[in-house]
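Final report, Chapter 2: Outcomes

The project's central promise was a pipeline that accepts a single protein chain and returns its three-dimensional structure in a standardized token representation, suitable for archiving and comparison. That pipeline is now operational. To close this chapter, we reproduce one record exactly as it appears in the project archive, with the input sequence first and the structure output second.
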Amino acid sequence: MAVELQPTELGFRRPFNVEVSESMFLRNLNNEPVAFKVKTTAPKHYCVRPNSGRIEPGKSVEVQVLLQAMKEDPPLDAKCKDKFLVQSVAITGDYEYSNIASIFEKVPKSAVQERKIRVNYLPPLGSTTNGTVEEEPPSVSSPAAPYETPAPGAAKRVDDAPIAQPQFAEKTPKRESPPSRDEKPPKVEQEKSGVSGAVSAATDETKERLADALAQIEKLKKQLAEQGLRQRKADSAESTLPQQQQQLQQAPPATETGVPVQIVAGLCLLSFLLAYIFF
């Protein structure tokens, strides 16, 4: 199992105060798919995308390596000790549907192939000294440096960064001078005339209803007055009748006037005797 790498070394050209991007290509020369993973000794300085994946037989994959921007360029005679490690393993039928991380965890270490790639700092394009192009000395690798998987997309290339859309200030609407107190907008005048007409119509209708209500109230008052008089007469008649009856009951019986019957009889007898005697 073999994976072809191009180039065998990564060279990043100055200046390093901006992000610098380089690419390497991985080609699968086998008859079965291959899983790969990219690691580096300086994961905080680089971003790799993709940092792992799958390569079909006879296919190649481009891996983009980003060197993040530095605060200051290192000295010209500085040597880079960073390195990359490319691991690859064949994907057999048992791992056909497994993810890349689990494949590298489950397969034995003897089945994993590793390729190391050095990193070099190159001078900027066009820089010359005495008519010759400056070249950096070969980099010195750090054999005992630990490898770690860099972040897949923590940094962005400058040319890939989206162009910020221009922000236009919203146009401030032109303020119209308010109408003077004497001048009133035509719309306000129309509304005012409509409201006044509605108010006058409502006032006339209210007046008519008020007049009808007052007439009804007067009529009811007259009816109530007549009913009150009748009730008072009936009450007074009913109240005087028992008073008269009570007075008649309380009054003493009337004394009989005239001559008693015995006296009349005596007088008649006396007149008869006198007439008998004298006549």
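Archive annotation: The radius of gyration is 66 Å.
This record, like all others produced under the grant, will remain available to the consortium after the project formally closes.
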